[in-house]
C-alpha cells in the first residue's frame, strides 16, 4: 500500500513539475524551493514573480507609470521590497526597454537605479552592485554632481544623467529567492 501511495505521489510531482516548467518569454525559468510536507517526502514548488512583475534572469521587474522624482521612485520600489533597477548586460537593457514599450507603446525616459549622488562622476547602483554595463549617450554623463540615471533619452534611447528632482516613470527590480 505504501508503495502505491509513493508511486502516486511521485507521478503527481512529475506531472506538476512538467506543467510548471514553462519558461518565460526570455528563456529563463523560475527557481524552485523545497516545500517540506512533514512526511517522508519533499515537493518542489516554483518561485515566480508577483502578479504584474516580469522575470528576467531570476529577477522580477515592474514598470511603474507614475511620474516621480528619483528618490520618490526608489521609496516606492522599497515599499514593494524592491529597488530601482540596475542593469548588468545589453540583453537585460533590451528586456527593460521592451517592458517599458509594452506598458506604454512608447520609449519614455524612465528612471533606473543609478546615480552619482555619493561622489561626482562616480556612478553607483542603488542596490550596491557594480556598474559593469553602460549605455550612455554620446558625451554623457556630463561631469555634474547629483544626477540620476534615466534610460530612453533622446532619439538614440540611451542613458543620461539628469537632475534627480525631475519627474519620470520608473522600473523596479527584486530578486526571487
Automatic annotation (TrEMBL):
It comes from the Eukaryota. Gene3D superfamilies: Mannose-Binding Protein A, subunit A (3.10.100.10). PROSITE patterns: C_TYPE_LECTIN_2 (PS50041). CDD domains: CLECT. Keywords: Signal. InterPro entries: AntifreezeII, C-type_lectin-like, C-type_lectin-like/link_sf, C-type_lectin/snaclec_domain, CTDL_fold. Pfam families: Lectin_C. Transmembrane segments: none annotated. Residues 1-19 form the signal peptide. Residues 56-173 form the C-type lectin domain. SUPFAM superfamilies: C-type lectin-like (SSF56436). SMART domains: CLECT (SM00034). This is C-type lectin domain-containing protein.
Amino acid at each position: 500500500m505504501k508503495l502505491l501511495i509513493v508511486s502516486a505521489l511521485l507521478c503527481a510531482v512529475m506531472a506538476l513539475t512538467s506543467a510548471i516548467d514553462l519558461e518565460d518569454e526570455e528563456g529563463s525559468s523560475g527557481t524552485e524551493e523545497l516545500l517540506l510536507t512533514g512526511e517522508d517526502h519533499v515537493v518542489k514548488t516554483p518561485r515566480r514573480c508577483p502578479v504584474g512583475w516580469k522575470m528576467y534572469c531570476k529577477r522580477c521587474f515592474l514598470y511603474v507609470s507614475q511620474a516621480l522624482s528619483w528618490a520618490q521612485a526608489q521609496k516606492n520600489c522599497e515599499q514593494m521590497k524592491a529597488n530601482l533597477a540596475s542593469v548588468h548586460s545589453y540583453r537585460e537593457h533590451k528586456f527593460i526597454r521592451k517592458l517599458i514599450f509594452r506598458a506604454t507603446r512608447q520609449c519614455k525616459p524612465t528612471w533606473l537605479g543609478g546615480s552619482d549622488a555619493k561622489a561626482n562622476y562616480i556612478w553607483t547602483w542603488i542596490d550596491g552592485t557594480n556598474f559593469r554595463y553602460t549605455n550612455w549617450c554620446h558625451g554623457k554623463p556630463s561631469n555634474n554632481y547629483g544626477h540620476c540615471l534615466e534610460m530612453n533619452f533622446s532619439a538614440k534611447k540611451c542613458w543620461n544623467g539628469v537632475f534627480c528632482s525631475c519627474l519620470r516613470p520608473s522600473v523596479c527590480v527584486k530578486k526571487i529567492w
